[in-house]
Please model this.
Amino acid sequence: MPLLFLIAALLAALPVQAQRADRPTPGYVRVRLETALGVIVLALDAKRAPATTANFMKYVDDGRFDGISFYRVARQKQAPQFGFVQSGIRTDARRFLDMIPHESTKKTGIKHLDMTISMARRGPPGSANGNWFIAVGPMPWMDWKPDNPGYAAFGRVVAGQAVVKRILAQPTGGAMNGTLLLKPVYVKRAIRLNGKSKPTGRPRPWLLEGRKDG
Model:
């Protein structure tokens, strides 16, 4: 009887635990990415990386990440199960907002660990805008160093890690040293899961053209 009572008590507690696990952590904004290979959930650190997180959420709240794709995969030569997957607006000027100040890992304390999301850029610090990547495995060379500003990490994947790994495993080739996905992984939409939506109100010309990117 005591054993049955204990089992019943544990089962009764499960819904409460699940509910608590679903509650967003204070200071973080969660985003759901619906991709062709499954769902990814991000938790963005609005407290330690406020400018970078706010920029990302402008794209989410405007729908600028709806219809984009994961377009680049860079695998480590010696350990191809590690690397990063990249997504965002690419060079689509119709979706572009603004370049943002560089919040380095020295400033934020957010390191490039496994499943960290960080801003991509092709220019100097301060040139990041609507492109980003997710690390698969730790990538300390992306962190700030005295001779290297590094990249701006601002959150991590909290669900859908297996989806990220499936994207990393997709065939690549072409430009950028053969790191472009031969078949980009379509992102149907990006959805804010907590906090108040704050659309910019700026024009969204890609919607007027009625075409689907990706």
About this structure: Residues 1-21 have pLDDT under 50 and may be disordered.
